[in-house]
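Annex B. Sample input.
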Amino acid sequence: MKLEKYIIIKNCTKEELKTILNDWLIVYANRLKSKMVFEIAEINPNVFVLEIGQSIDDTFFFFLVNYFAYPIGFKKTFEAEGYTTATKHKTLRNKKIYVFNNAKDTEYDNVWITTEENETYKFDFGGKLRKVDFDKNYKIFDISNLSITHEQIIVNKKELLDEAKRRKDEKSRHNLEKRFKIISTAFFVIIPLAFLTNKYFSYLEDMKLILFCAVTIMIWFMMDYKIFKNFKRTFICMLLASLILAWGINTQDIFLATTATMPLSSIIFMWTANILLGEKLDYLYDKLDRLFVLVFFAFAVLISIFVFNPILKLLNIW
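Annex B, continued. Sample output.
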């Protein structure tokens, strides 16, 4: 295999290097080629060279040099510099280049490139390359003069995509749980407070407050529909919907009471959809977009009108 791209990483262990490389590959898994080969060699203690094949183009090479310097999830930064012959960008094409991170750059999403002619360019991750005045001479790196042992790493794109999906799902579940705790707690405080305040001070009509709370909760249920995959969270939502319903019944107005059943109707619709459709619901949510919202609200309203409204009339609690 012909290796023409090199990254020197300093103040780094081999385990850290492998972790950083793997994390970067997972981030860009969808945009990389199906098979990639890397070679790692130790030059000095805590100094390694990563050799990269042509499966990584110049732009991703720049990204990787930057990521090695500022990896996500590490409490320290590393010194990373790259060497290659440019093949992609017209201004740099066929020139030997030295790629580095400017210690004075506070944006952290750029790399700096010096050509063999000692011309320096700044490449930002929006894809813009511009020449800059910067006193940095081209550095030569020749790996052939080094007596080192290489460890080859062959990367499987399918495994990367599977890991990327697993991490995305895990992060999504964590964020969902965090949002649920914050929003549900807020509503358990806001609804009784609004009811009591309005009862004794009457600063707004019950209709406006109930409708606002009901619609807001419905929007939350729709946006975070995955909360209904969990029994505990579903039960908490039922309690929350019951608070709205109790408020509506307390008004002794059949219309307001029916309106107050809409969060409960939303739970029934979303819980049923999660049970029957499973992962297909994710697909429908992504593809239908606004139509999904309309269907959600339509079914919730229909359940309130044709199921809960007759039940409330039958109970005749007024």
